[in-house]
Structures are given as structure tokens and as C-alpha cells.
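WARN retry 2 of 3 for item q-0093 after timeout on previous attempt; input resubmitted unchanged.
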Amino acid sequence: MVSTERGITVSDVQDTLAPVSDDLWVAAACVDRFVSDEVVQRSLVELGINRTNAAVQRCKEVLLPSGSSDAVNEPKELLSVYFTDTPEDAQLCHIRTVLLARLDRLNSFAEIYKELLEKKRDEGNSPEIDEEWEDDPWKEEVEASIIAHAATPAQSPIPLQDFLTEDILDMACFYASQECFDAVRTLLMYHHSCLWPSRFTILESIPCHSNPSDYRNFFPAYDVATDKELASPLRRWRTEEDWVESMEVQAVLSQLKLLAEFEALHSSSANVACRESQLASAQELTSWYQKRVDQVISSTGMLDIALSIVQHAGSLGIPDLDELGEDLSLMTRLVYDIPQAWAQDEDWTLARWRNMEPSQIVGAYLAHSTADTVAKDILRLIIPYLFVLESRSERAGQPDPDLPDRLLHNYILGAPLDIVAAIIEASKRTLLPPQRVIKHDEDVARLALACLYGSNSLTEWMTMSRIFECLPAWEIGPSSEDEADATIGSLGEFVTPSTAHPQCGPTDLLSFFKPLPVASLSRALDILDVHLESGEIFARWNVPAPLRWFLQSAGDVTEQRAWANRMARRAGAAAEKLGEMEDWEWLLDDMLKLCGRNESGVSSAFGLLTEEEVSSIFFSGLLSSGRFDIAKDLIHSKHGKLTLKASKIEDICLVASREFYDNASSANYKVGDMKLAYDCLDVPAPSQQLEKERDFIEATSRLSSFNIMSRPGILISPIEIRLTKDRLSLISRVLSSNAGAYKHTQVMLDLLHKLGFRDDVVAEVKTLAMISDAALQAEDFTRAFDTNQKMIDVVFKLRLAIISSGSEDLRLQEASEVCWLACFQLGRHPEFPDVEQKLTLMGRALELCPADKLNDILIPWRRMEQEDLEVRKERLTDHSSRPKPAVTKPVSSLQSRLNNLHVPTTPLLNAEDAAALAGRAFSRVASNFPFRVAGREHSETREGQARSGSQDESHRRPDGEDVSQQASRVLQRGIGWLLGADDES
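OK item q-0093 returned
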């Protein structure tokens, strides 16, 4: 049993056990007793071993034949028979075996405890304190803790009793897990036969975060001669093996049936003794190191620990770890040497590293590089990695000398422009070759061209200029304009999007520039110079374009013209930037600068546009900004740079005014865009065309005051007014939507003139007819009659003008037709009370109508004349006693009016009713006028009855005809004779 008493001393052991003569009992007592004191325990072990010496001597004597020193032929059998016959000696031999092993452990414990004391003593020696910490307020507390720690006695992690009884492999693994590498070394050194088979188990018990340098002596090594693991030398506490520890004696003891107490002891020691050591092969060693590295990375992510393991393995000669070492070395650079620490969620493993493409690894190396650090990062991170890749390809038998340049170029092509600029600056010709990131000038030029023309940036013009300033310059003669144009044309075709290549990127452009010789590259750099200058000008005026646009638009005059318009108008929109005339002159200078070619014959952004066209575009943009004062100053300036003809200026102003007009939301020319449209016409010198446009704007404003609707609830817009094909319909809509508009005849006529009909007599007649019709609808017969009189005067004035000129004019026919229809409509209106005015209008209708309509007008005219006579007769009868009223001057006779008619010889016999003819003719000529006469339905009904009655009577037999109808027929024949009709007609 294990004793826990603390009072046993060496003297107690000697005084108690030494006098006992029974060796078995004393040996059993020694093997059964455990104490915590090393000296007492050692005395017990040594006493027990001494008490087994006699038994060992008796066993040896059995194996020797009597009287001879030679051993028997079969010692195992003899020893087995002896142990069977003398079990006490067998038990003593077994106890001796246990005590010898316990003595070895006791020696190991003493060595471990000694090393622990030395380590504790070293920790107790306080290091020198820096002067700046001499005033540390916690100095006294720290010193007190150090003194207390040094005064505390050292304690072994495993107590002596446990150390002697526990499995030695478990203790070795425990010490390894606690990083007690001195204890592990002691156990592996002095208990080699027991722990050697489980060496890898002990190594795997060491924490993954432990520094491999602390346990480098435990790593398995490789023996090149045997192609296996290098066996470590054997060391024992006892130089010679005891007789009972021999294989023959242990074999015999293992076959005996011992007591239960000794059986447990024997099984443990026997198992330990039976472990055989096996040397690992080279492949097994490599596999173990690889697994250990994977375990370290997966559990801790400490790549430096994994790399250190591989480095120690390399020093121990472990094969096939070169590639693993390279990967770990490159990974440690990625994790620990990048400018900015990786995020905590980044998980870098060998599997991830090996699954990444080289281009992805290059991107990971430079992911946190800035413009200030990227060149140094490439030299210290990327170049070594690319060298490793090239070496691997050579080792694999697939050399690829272009691999480093290709990977580096691909990164540059996809990098931002500020990174590209830093790399190009670190590749200048003025630097020494080892200091240059890109070694060859041609590669620098190609990469710069591809990155600049493949970039979509619209703001980094300073960065682009930095790149251009670092590019090489070759001494090559100037190229002709044709060569420059051919280069630009080929580049433009290449960068133009197509179905196969929707967008041309830097990588595609590099493939274009790669085969070009130095002369072509130099010419491309000249083109780049011009395009950069043009791009800076565009950016200055808020119309930036990517560099590829200059290639695409080099042969497209439409695109250049569109961008010039955009430049002039976008600059004008930035009112805070262009406030004075000097700013606009600066813009004009820049736009004119973009028209020419440089010394190398390279055309600029507007190379296909003339200076006059660019000046016109500039002036149009100036007008669109509303700065008409500056526009006038530029036109009239003696030293002005705007050289445009007066007619061109007028055309531009008209276009600008119409643009303002079309964009106006309000038709009032006192505010908004309509005001700008009106004021824009004051910029050039006055002309008839400008006055006409000004009148139209005023007419638009006047029309808007009448609240004309384009749709229910929506006022008509200026653009709708301009797009109206028949502008007379606008006057019609004014009259129809405003009840009192007809009362302002002169206003309507002024509106007509401003709508573009100032000298159009026919339009004036139609307008008067519409006014008359509107008055008629309102039953304002007085204004209707006055308007008809004005219309008649206009028609007769036109007739006199045409007669005096002696030429035929269709306007007279159209105006006359409108006029007689309007007169006829008012004259036949049944609710018009003034018969004399009605007869006057009917007479004018007879005078102006075509010959084939005379009969239709005569019938109602005659009826009205008859009614007038009857009214007069009744008036005379009723008022015979009264003084006669003043007789109104009669209407001129029909014959006198017909003498002035010049109509064709058209028969009027059997003509249809005049009302129907007049209605259709007037509807055809004035179809745009919404005539709705009040009481018209009643009038038409009555006239229809008259027509039907007249037609019925005309179909009666001649003997039943009315006298008045016979007289009408005679009058018709007379009129036909006057007009030259023959008798048969």
C-alpha cells in the first residue's frame, strides 16, 4: 500500500526492516511502501534490492552444473523448474525487477526536480531595470512578489508517489502538454526503451502554439544512409543490465502464476518491456511533418510556428518539404509583412493558398498597398513570389520565362490609376535596373497606353499626366499627318464596342500595343499627349470624357459636333464659373484650340470641325445660358475673337429663341424661358425675320391670355401653338372659348398679323368671317353686319388691286367665296331684324358669288324684297296721316350690280336651292370656323320648307304655275343673256 505518513526517516527504515531476516517479507514491504520524501524512498528501494541479492545468487547457481562453470544447454527449463519448486525466489526476482525500474524512475524524478530548481532559481534572479522605470510606483510590490516567489519551494508537477506508480507514457504526454521540455527530455533519454515506440504521441501532445525551437531535440531526423528515421542513442541510469532484467528471466517470470499483488506489478512492467521500437520511413516522416503543420495552422493559424517546424525538418534532412517550406514562407510574408494588418475574419490555410490562382495571390499581396508603398511591396513581396513560381515551373519541366512579367502586368492593368502611376514612376529610365519595377521601356509604354486608354476615369487627369511624364521618349523623327491619322484610326476601330467585344479593356489594349515597334509606340505617345491635353480642357469645362472617346470620335464628325455642343452648353450651365466676359473668351479659346493639330500632325478633339462651326456652337451655348449682354459685347467688340457673319449670328439667335420658346412652360413673354426667347431676338441687328419671330412670341403670349385649353383642364402650351399647322384655327378657338372676343375685332386682327398673316388678305377675310360668325352666334347682328362690311371692303380693295395689275390671282376667288358666303349667311338669318341691311348683304353676296349660285341667292333676296314692300305698304297705310319718314336710299338695282360681274357663262336654270349650295360652299372654304348661328335650326327648317315648296311648284304643269315664278324664270333668261349664254342653254 501507499503510505501517506510524513514522519518516516531513513533511520526508521533501517531500524525497522534491517533486523528482519525474512528477505521476501522485507522486499515486499519495500515494494509496497511509497513516501513523498525522495531520500527515504531511495533507502526503501535500495534496501529491497539488497534483500533480493541472495535469491538472485541462488538462481544463478541453479543454472550452473555442479562443479563446472559452463552454463546448461536449457537454462529456461531449469529456471522454470526452480521457480516452480521455490516460489519465494521467483517472487523475490520479480520484486527485484520492479524495484530496479522504480529506482530508475526515482533517479529521473530527482533529475527533473533538480532542473526545476535551477529554472526557478534563474527566474528568481531579477533582471536589471531600465532607468526610466526606476520611479515605478509599483516597484516595491513587484520586488516583494519576486522575493515571495523565490522563497516558495519548488514543487514537481507530478508528486513522487504518482511519478513512481503512473504510466510513464501518460506522464511524458502530460509534461509535453505543460511544455516541461526538460522533463520530457529526461524521460525520453533514460526511459528510451519504454517511450521510443510512442515518441510521435508525445510530440503530438505538445501544444501547437509552442515554439519549435524549445523542443527541437525531440523532432525525428532522417538518415540518408538507411533511408529511414535516424535512431537516437540509448542511455540508461545503470550502465549494465541486471540479471533479472534479461529476456530469458523475464520470459520465465511471465509464465509463472504469482500472487495477486505481484501479478499487477508484473503485468505493468512486462507490458512496458515488450514495446518494440520501429524506425519510420522517409515517407512517413514527411507525412508526419505535413500533418503537424496542418494541425498548427488549422488550430492556431500561426504560420510562423508552422514555418519554423518545416525549417527544423529541413535541417534534420526530412525530404520533400521544399515546396511546403516555400508556401509557408510566402504565406508568412502575406500575413505578417503586408502594410496593413488583415481583418480578424481572414483565415489563411494551406488549402486556401494552394487553391488560389497566382493572380489572386498577387492581388492578395497588394490588396492593402497604397500609392506610397506599392512599389516597395512589389519588390519585397511580389518579385520573390514570382521567382518561386518560375523556379517551380522549371523544376516541373515546363519553363515559362514570361510568367513573372505576365502576372505583374495583369495586376497593373487592373489596378487603379494612382497605383499605376506609382508603379510607372518606380520604373523610370533614370532609375537603376535593380530599382525598377518594370525593367523594359517598351513594356512601360505599352502598359501606360493600355491603362490610360482602357480607363473609364473622368477625374484623374493629374494622375494621368503624372503617368505620361514618366514615359520614355525615343529619338524618332516626326511622323506625317497620314501616319498619325492611320494610327488613330486603327486604335479607334479597336476600342469601338462591337458584338464580339462590348467593351475594350486594358488587357485587350495591351494585346494591341504588344506587337507594335518602338516607332509606332512613339507615335502613340504623341497621340496620347494631345488627347490628355484635350481631356484636361474637357474636364475644366465640366464635360469630361474617357480617353478612349478621343479615339472613337477621331473620324466621327457627328460625335465631335455633339460634344462641342455639350461643352458650350454645360459650361454655360455652370453660372458660377462663367460670370464675366473673360471667362467666356477663355472657353472660346479652348474650343478653338481643340480644332487644330499639334506639331506632330495629330488632330485634336474637334479636328473635323471648322473654326466657324465651333464658333457658332460656342455662340449658341452662350445664348442658351441667357447671357445676352455678353453675347452683344462679343459681337460688337473690336478685338473680339468671335468672327461670325451677321446672317449667321441672326440664324443662331433665331434657333436659340425657338429653343427657349419650345422649352417654355408659360407663354407669358414677360417671365421664364419665353422672356429669354423674346430677349434673345435683341442680340443681332434688327431684321424682318426677327420682327416676325418677335410678333409670333407676342401672339403666343396673347393667346395664352384667352385661356385656350388643349385638353380639358390643361392650358395649351407654347410648343403646341408652334406645332399647330393651321394657325387660323387658334383664332377660331379663341372666338369659340371666349364669349366676348368677337367684340374686339382689331385685337383679333392684330393677333392674326402676329401669327404670321400680316399681308395675307385671304387670312384676314377668313378671320373677319369667323368674327362675324361669332357675333351671329351671340345674336349681335349689329357687330356682325359691321364686321361683314369690313370684310367686303377688304375684298373690294383686293379686287381693285388685282384689276389694276391686270393679272389673275386665286386669292380673290378664295376671299370672294368666303365673303359672299358670310354675307349670305347673315343676310338670310331669320332673326336679323334690319331688312335693308339684309338686302344689302344679299346684294353683296350676289355681286361676289359665282354665276352658278345667282339663282340660289335671288330667290331669298326676292322674297325679302317682297316682304320689305309689304311692310312698307302696311306702314304707309297705318301712318298715312303722319309726315313721311325719310326714305332710305334704295339698294342699287340688280342690273347695275350685275354689270360689274365677271363670271363664267354657267346656266342657272333649274338650279337647286341657294341655301343648300351656299351652306356646302361655305363649309368647304371655312371648314375651320365653328359656325353655330343662334336660331339656325329654326331658319333651316323654314328654308327647307321653302325649298321643298319651290321644288314642288317647279315640277307642276306650266298652266298651273304662279305668276311670280314665271317672272322669275324670265329674269333668269335675261341674266343668262347678259352673261352670254346661248338660246339653247
